[in-house]
């Protein structure tokens, strides 16, 4: 299949399938081409490769990586007043209340030091957070990694662990020497309940219902750029090419 590379901005544009990646562009703000700073949000389900793509973006474009999860964990580790307050919420896997998190993330964007801009990761993830962010530090692009659930489920399904040591194997990329046996002890490997297909599917469905209104918000504002594909190494060059336009004047 021919590789279509067309990052013309300004109007709705559906590029269709490109090998294993497709990206659908909604008219990204016209002025982006003349802007140097990137003020971006990245959205993608757990297991979509968001971590990999985010770290490549911040490295290649010298952006501040504003990951809500990392910022919250750092407060907890440093035992700040804020950290002590949110620790029980974060450790039990619940969402940090809007009134606590929104001012923190607003402060993070406003105090970001990188002249190239910032990448918000993990925030916003509700409509309320999105609307507030738009009033205080509106992003100029939202990158959505649309990786099929089936791909994510398949990937996580291949993860097996040796519970006692915590050694993790992947049957596709990092298989044990003897199938389903730990390399060191030869004991049987297990699959975490969380990694079983049904649990992963449920987690993904909960995630999707939470971010759908966020995606709609950015799509309506013509700020959503969607990258669909199954492999980070294929998606990444397209993301990079797209973002590179911001730094060309
Ligand atoms: P993460 O590393 O993105 O999985 O986030 C870790 C934890 O931080 C989550 O389980 C929540 O408790 C909290 N958190 C991170 N981002 C948000 C958010 N946008 N809204 C509410 N809570 C959040």
Automatic annotation (TrEMBL):
It catalyses: a ribonucleoside 5'-triphosphate + AMP = a ribonucleoside 5'-diphosphate + ADP. Its EC number is 2.7.4.10. It is found in: Mitochondrion matrix. GTP binds at residues 47-52, 159, 168-169, 232. Residues 67-96 are annotated as: NMPbind. Residues 159-194 form the Adenylate kinase active site lid domain. The keyword Cell division does not apply. Keywords: GTP-binding, Kinase, Mitochondrion, Nucleotide-binding, Transferase. Residues 158-195 are annotated as: LID. AMP binds at residues 68, 73, 94-96, 129, 192, 203. GO terms for biological process: ADP biosynthetic process; AMP metabolic process; GTP metabolic process; ITP metabolic process. InterPro entries: Adenyl_kin_sub (IPR006259), Adenylat/UMP-CMP_kin (IPR000850), Adenylat_kinase_CS (IPR033690), Adenylate_kinase_lid-dom (IPR007862), ADK_active_lid_dom_sf (IPR036193), AK3/Ak4_mitochondrial (IPR028586), P-loop_NTPase (IPR027417). PROSITE patterns: ADENYLATE_KINASE. GO terms for cellular component: mitochondrial matrix. It is an enzyme of class 2 (transferase). GO terms for molecular function: AMP kinase activity; ATP binding; GTP binding; nucleoside triphosphate adenylate kinase activity. HAMAP family: Adenylate_kinase_Adk, Adenylate_kinase_AK3. Monomer. Involved in maintaining the homeostasis of cellular nucleotides by catalyzing the interconversion of nucleoside phosphates. Has GTP:AMP phosphotransferase and ITP:AMP phosphotransferase activities. NCBIfam families: adk. Belongs to the adenylate kinase family. AK3 subfamily. Consists of three domains, a large central CORE domain and two small peripheral domains, NMPbind and LID, which undergo movements during catalysis. The LID domain closes over the site of phosphoryl transfer upon GTP binding. Assembling and dissambling the active center during each catalytic cycle provides an effective means to prevent GTP hydrolysis. This is GTP:AMP phosphotransferase, mitochondrial. It comes from Folsomia candida.
């Amino acid at each position: 299949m021919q590789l279509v590379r067309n990052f013309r901005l300004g109007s709705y544009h559906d590029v269709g399938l490109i090998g294993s990646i497709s990206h659908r562009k909604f008219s990204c703000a016209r002025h982006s081409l003349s802007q140097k700073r990137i003020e971006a949000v990245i959205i993608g389900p757990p297991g979509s490769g968001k971590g990999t793509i985010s770290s490549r973006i911040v490295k290649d474009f010298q952006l501040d990586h504003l990951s809500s999860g990392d910022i919250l964990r750092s407060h907890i580790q440093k035992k700040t007043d804020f950290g002590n307050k949110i620790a029980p919420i974060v450790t039990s896997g619940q969402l940090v209340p809007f009134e606590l998190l929104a001012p923190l993330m607003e402060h993070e964007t406003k105090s970001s030091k990188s002249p190239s801009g910032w990448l918000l990761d993990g925030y916003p993830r509700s409509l309320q957070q999105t609307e507030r962010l738009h009033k205080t530090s509106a992003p100029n692009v939202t990158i959505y990694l649309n990786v099929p659930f089936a791909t994510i489920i398949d990937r996580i399904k291949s993860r097996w662990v040796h519970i006692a040591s915590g050694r993790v194997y992947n049957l596709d990329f990092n298989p044990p020497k003897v199938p389903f046996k730990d390399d060191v002890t030869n004991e049987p490997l297990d699959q975490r309940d969380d990694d079983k297909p049904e649990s992963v599917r449920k987690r993904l469905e909960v995630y999707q219902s939470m971010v759908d209104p966020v995606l709609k918000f950015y799509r309506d504002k013509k700020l959503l750029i969607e990258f669909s594909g199954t492999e980070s190494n294929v998606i990444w060059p397209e993301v990079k090419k797209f973002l590179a336009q911001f730094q060309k004047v």
